[in-house]
Amino acid sequence: MTTTPASFETVAARMAGNIRKPLRGTVLLGKYGVAPLITTLVATSGQIAVPSTYESLGWISTDGLAFAGKSDFSEVRGWGSASFLRRDIKAQDHTMKFTAIETKRLTLELRMGRDLVATQMSAAGEWKADILDRPDVMDWRALAIGVDGSGAGLYYMARAFHKCTVTDMDDQAWTDGDDPLGYGVTLGAVPDDVSGTIGTEFIFGPGALAAAAAMGITVAA
Description:
- The chain is mainly beta.
- The protein has helices spanning 8-12, 105-112, 206-210, and strands at residues 24-31, 55-56, 66-76, 86-100, 140-148, 155-169, 183-189, 199-204.
- It is 8% helix and 33% strand.
- Strands 1, 2, 3, 4, 5, 6, 7 and 8 form an eight-stranded antiparallel sheet that branches.
- 19% of the residues are buried.
């Protein structure tokens, strides 16, 4: 093996241009079995191609989006070993947590666990939906999109859960404080029968294409 002497900065290869910060974003949902699997998001001129059966939750609270991945391992020790000799993944949980702050049918569907498309408002201006003791589990396809930069530097980051359900709901406070009425939920991903995967990670946009080499990503011919 040969080595070449170099300065710390050369060895560290730190690039500030690779630091990303999603300055804005949202979550789109499609009902599982109706909304198609998302396999690409790229359109021309920095636009996004999303199937019409996906609907946006709109504004998300300033907490943004939080993704978590938890693994459960089976660990093996040997006779006389001080350290584990082998680790195998037994289970993995992938979640997406956010608080939607627009009150509309989609956020109410998330919180109530019901399809409310056919629930109409009366001519007198009253909308109502029963709170069920044990609602059915609703399966969703979820797409989270974050945006950094603008113009030629427009950089999108996205994560799709191909099949997920609401696994937790935050307490909802009705108050005259600074926080609006929120719909805080956690979506837990499960394997999708169509793709055979949990989800897909996307990076795209003109800024992403321009930064491919700096990120160590090869661009196809």
